[in-house]
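look at this stuff:

>
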Amino acid sequence: MQELSHFIDGAHTAGTSGRFADVFNPATGEVQAKVPLASRAEVDAAVARAAEAQPAWGATNPQRRARVLMEFVRLLNRDMDKLAEALSREHGKTIPDAKGDVQRGLEVVEFCIGAPHLLKGEFTDSAGPGIDMYSMRQPLGVVAGITPFNFPAMIPMWKMAPALACGNAFILKPSERDPSVPLMLAELLKEAGLPDGVLQVVNGDKEAVDAILENETVQAVGFVGSTPIAQYIYAKGCENGKRVQCFGGAKNHMIVMPDADMDQAADALVGAGYGAAGERCMAISVAVPVGDETADRLIEKLVPRIEKLKVGPYTAGNDVDYGPVVTAAAKANILRLVESGVEQGAELVVDGRDFSLQGYEDGFFVGPHLFDRVTKDMDIYKTEIFGPVLSTVRAKSYEEALGLAMDHEYGNGTAIFTRDGDTARDFASRINIGMVGVNVPIPVPLAYHTFGGWKKSGFGDLNQHGPDAFRFYTRTKTVTARWPSGLKEGGEFHFKQMD
């Protein structure tokens, strides 16, 4: 049995709490490793060491910090296959999907190589007689990221790359379900030249999370996960005076207009709904065809595509469409929600409840499901299922379809498929959701824009990656400097007006 570690002060460090969590192979259901769960004392020690290392890193000029990230990108490309295999082994997603996980994180690191430009302040010459004013962006100090199981490479890089580029030290608390890739990222950053102690990886559960939130040295916390935990971390972090950004759950709608290309829409829904077994916060889980004729045409296109999906372990080849979900508990919850949909009157058009994969009966595989005639009061509509389940809600009009997405409590992502520019522009303008796709099913912005949801999908006023990340991980200092010239006239006892 492999025993994993923390990564403290530039080295793998055994846990001392005596508590461990099992790390499963989702394809077989077997425990393949155990990961230590840090105590509050271990977290505090990691933070204290990071605080010692941060001033020198913060004083390193931005271009030199960027060179470390530049080398990190090279190492990520060098070890892409190794990272993807480790990710697939613990998470269950296919190798191509795992490489995409690494790649989308790598792109944020590439963006952060431009830190010297992004950290430039502002300057006003001669704001008054002999007076100049300028602003500086300075690091916060020690900051932390609490990241989820579904993107164990991408989201840690979304958090730590801008934080490190800004000159902070970073505490990473990854998911205990698939911790190997975050540890490998720490190894690569050390190899790239990051000084010891600037990045600390502390594995743990709620005890570690609370220790981070209550540690006075930690100045900011970023989180991605479920909405209840996002609300908890946001409230507790703010209560303790920290800068906090939290991203929660989702229920992403895709509106299909009557003029849409139905083959394109069906392909998009299958990929966006079932890819990564639906374990994506940007997965499309609700299809909203406008009009019964549109709905009938869409269902007719979807059924054969869904029935042909290949479900299996990542070792079965790159033609596998999706793998297992992450835990037995996740599988049980998905199937419970499917049963609730049937009981509440939805039409189960594609039924994956009896799915079983020969030789992998103990794995956490869930067959694909397609519901039709879902209504707003059903649990499968209100709840984020986080599994390979697509619900179809029929709308009589565009306005009704728009209202479904706008009225839902989540506001992470949405999409519309149409050939009509007026409809697309109206939708993009009016929708109260943070990320919008027009004939694009999963509208995840590229690294130089920002990622973030609205409503109960996002808490805080700044998004992930892009320019917002550099605002989040720095504070602005404004300096007013006067260099008098000529004769000195003595002290002044009132505020001098600017001429």
In short: The chain has a mean pLDDT of 95.
